[in-house]
């Protein structure tokens, strides 16, 4: 059995607030970098999964002007803003 002791300390409200802010900031720093690395462009596969449509549908949408693709080299990408606009449509 471990011997654990509870230690009580008196602390003013300002110091306690700063302690809580420090803990919250540390936790947020763990989450925020993952969010800031969000992409500006999605591949065809990522776009089809986000919109829950087939790659053929994306091809037809591109031809019809519903969701325009952008080519970088031989690869096809869709802009994040266009995909999000289609999601809210």
UniProtKB/TrEMBL annotation:
<dbReference type="InterPro" id="IPR041657">
    <property type="entry name" value="HTH_17"/>
</dbReference>
<dbReference type="InterPro" id="IPR009061">
    <property type="entry name" value="DNA-bd_dom_put_sf"/>
</dbReference>
<dbReference type="Pfam" id="PF12728">
    <property type="entry name" value="HTH_17"/>
</dbReference>
<protein>
    <submittedName>
        <fullName>Helix-turn-helix domain-containing protein</fullName>
    </submittedName>
</protein>
<feature type="domain" description="Helix-turn-helix">
    <location>
        <begin position="41"/>
        <end position="85"/>
    </location>
</feature>
